[in-house]
Structure formats: C-alpha cells, structure tokens
Amino acid sequence: MKTAILKALRQNEGYVSGQEICDALNVSRTAVWKDMKKLKEEGYEIESVSNRGYRLKSAPDILCKHELCSLIDTAWAGSEVHFFEETESTNTKAKQLADEGAKNGTLVVTENQTAGRGRRGRDWLAGKGTNIAMTLVLKPEFAPNSASQVTLVAALATASAIEKIYGAEAKIKWPNDILVNGKKVVGILTEMSAEIDYINYVVVGIGINVHKQEFSDDIKDIAGYVEQDGLPVVRRSELLAEILRQFEKYYDIFCRDLNLKNLKTDYERMLVNKEKEVRVLDSREPFNGIAKGITDTGELLVETEGKTVAVSAGEVSVRGLYGYV
Ligand code: ATP
C-alpha cells in the first residue's frame, strides 16, 4: 500500500486529502495513517495540514520497492520489481528469477551489490548508497545472434537518460561503457541463456556510479561519477525510472526492426570513439585505426590500412590511442 500512497502523493503536486486516498485504495483512515507514519520513518517528508490533506515535500534517496514502483511509469520495463538490500550480483539474481519464470520486463535492484561482474570475468565495483545496480530480464522473440545488440540499446538508453536528467553530455565508449567528463560512469553486462535457435532469456545489467565517491586504486584513473560539480543532485530512483523509459522506447524500436538502423544516428551522436584513433585489442591480432561509426547490427566500423573492418563486441576491447578513450 505504501506504493499506492506514494503514487497518489506524487500524482498530486498539491495536497491530497486523506479521504481521497482511503477511497482510491478502499482502506481505512487508520491504515493510511499507519503507512504514512512508516514512510515518514523511512525519510519521506510528508506534510499534513488540516482541511487540506497530505503533501509530499521530499523523498529520501533510496531504491526500495515502493519508491521505485511509485515512479515507474513504463508499459512493461520494470513492471515487476525485485529489490534486495544486498546481493552479490543483480545479473545473477535476475538469471535465477528468469529460470524460475520471471516475466519479460522484470527488474532486479539492490542497494548493495557485493560481487558485481563485468565482461570476461572482470569485476564491477559498486559503492553502497551512491550507485545504481539494476538488471532487466528480457524474454525476446528474436534469435540468439541478435542479442549482442541489446547491449548497445542499453548503452544508448542509459546515456540518453543521463543527458535528460542531468543536462550533462554523456558519451558512449563502444559498445557498452558510458563516460561523463571522460570518466567511465556506467558499465553494462548483457548475458543470455539460449538454445541454438531460441533465447530463453537475456539479462541486461546496468551499473552506474551516481553520486560523488572515492574509487579504489585499480580503477581510480578511469572511473568517475555522474553527479559532477555543477550538476543537479538527483535521487537515484528518478534516474532509474528515466533509464526504464528510454530503454523501453529504444528496445521497442529495436525489436520492431531487429537491427539498430533507426537508433544508429542517436548512438553515433554519443559515440566518443567516432572519428578518433582507436586500438582494437583483438586477442589474436590487435590493430589501430579510425573508428567511423557502427553498422546496422552494432559492430564498430574501423578504418585501417585503406580498408574498413567491422569489429564485433564479443572478444574485443577498444582503447583510445593515448588512454582509455
Ligand atoms: P573494456 O573497456 O576493456 O572493453 P569492459 O567494457 O569490457 O571494458 P566492463 O565489463 O564494462 O569492462 O567493466 C569491468 C571493468 O570496469 C573492470 O575491469 C574495471 O576496470 C572497471 N570498473 C569496475 N568497477 C567500476 C566502476 N564502479 N566504475 C568504473 N569502472 C569500473
């Protein structure tokens, strides 16, 4: 019921009467009052004025289920939310839930991810209370060989959400990292369970360094956080809800086309590597070239020695010639 109360308060910028809430939820005044009290204890500032009712003055920066559910307004992305105070990895949890039958659009969120993973067995470190660790479960109709493009859709959605919420420039380092002010603030890990020609599910994990934080020595040169000086301070739940909106919008386009043709312009606008010299760290034969953009199916086009090569994300990392980008 806390979700419904928060929704009612959020829908009304002004005051909403206790009676209106009771009628809408079909519960007693005492029940509403009890949950209001719990919300206040969690840090929600709810003003109550006699004859006028209740007004939400401010909300705490928490990611619990009722906070998220009262903000999520997408059709399917985040239609079911699983929140964990602590978990090793939201991707691992999401896979477990998907195996158990979780539906398309199920969202897993934690406040404290203790063993986040990156690509190829790397670690993703996430500060408690300052970051977002979220994973979406997808149960697509398309074939397994299209799934790698979902990573690019997620990168585009997350970068667009950051730009929309903060008014800051977000850049994508192909295929899946997002940079603000040249520092990596987002990592995305897409995993899949599939048969040869059939996807059981895809999970898309998004880790975001949101608020100001210190990083450990091994990542401090590349890592940054979104909330740079001068940018607005935004509650993580607001950013998360916007990511879902953007993801739903772009993913629906992708599913209609089954390629990135209609997302390419937006993606390339944010592509930090575009027209830059890059080093493709192919495990067999690393090479240098100029990144030109992406193909309709998400490969990076790199011009090298007079020819253009399409590089697939799978086993490759891209670096700037003089550093991370
Ligand atoms: P590459 O740039 O080599 O392609 P990647 O995209 O494959 O990297 P990810 O899987 O996205 O890498 O993320 C794992 C890497 O990100 C780690 O090896 C570490 O260098 C870095 N990292 C880990 N935690 C964070 C964090 N919170 N913020 C920024 N970078 C991080």
User: What share of residues are in beta strands?
Assistant: 25-35%
Look up the CATH topology of the largest domain.
BirA Bifunctional Protein, domain 2
Strand order of the largest sheet: 3-4-7-11-10-9-8
- Name the CATH superfamily assignment of the largest domain: Bira Bifunctional Protein, Domain 2
Distinct helical segment count: 8
Assign the CATH class of the largest domain: Alpha Beta
Order of helices and strands: HHHEEHEHEEEEHEEEEHHEEEEE
List keywords for this structure.
16 strands, 27% strand, SH3 type barrels, 325 residues, binds adenosine-5'-triphosphate, 7-stranded mixed beta sheet, elongated, 8 helices, Arc Repressor Mutant, subunit A, 5-stranded antiparallel beta sheet, 3 domains, alpha+beta, BirA Bifunctional Protein, domain 2
Description:
The structure is a single chain. This protein has 325 residues and is α+β, with helices and mostly antiparallel strands. It folds into three domains: 57 residues, Arc Repressor Mutant, subunit A (Orthogonal Bundle); 206 residues, 2-Layer Sandwich (BirA Bifunctional Protein, domain 2); 42 residues, SH3 type barrels. It contains eight helices and 16 strands. The strands form four sheets. Strands 3-4-7-11-10-9-8 form a seven-stranded mixed β-sheet, sandwiched between helices. Strand 12 and strand 13 form a beta hairpin. Helix 6 crosses helix 7. The longest helix is centred in the last third of the chain and has 22 residues. The termini are far apart. The site of adenosine-5'-triphosphate has 17 residues, from strand 6 and strand 10.
